[in-house]
User: Fold this.
Amino acid sequence: MILDTYNKPTKISNEVLDSVVSYANEMLILEDLEELQIIFKSKNGDNCGYFDGIGDEEDGVAAIEINSKKSVEEIIKTIFHELVHVQQVLHEKFCDIEKTWFGETYEGIDYENLPWEIDAFEKEEILWNSFQNIENNPLHSLKSVID
Assistant:
């Protein structure tokens, strides 16, 4: 997978970012994804990230936006979260355009109760917890930055 980043904050190294994306790619089975674009945006407020969809299905290009004002830990968790949405679309569970989950439309439901968000938050935590424990994790050298 090709990884393109835009406006990456200096607080997250290329090594950490590559490790996070590689880990998610392996764990979420994103082999159909040819390119991932991560756009870092400096935003105030609670918003941590946004899945901007997958381009033309044949292109295999996904774009996610990440709030660069968040902590390194929150940035990594958000990348995991948004990549779960990529997995959901690639594996045809979630249609981000029609807002359907396994073909069922969800309207008028609070964000935290949407089935694709429940799935993404659960998998985000699993990925984060397991990522912290992998051998040779570049985060070990950043422990003081995360804490």
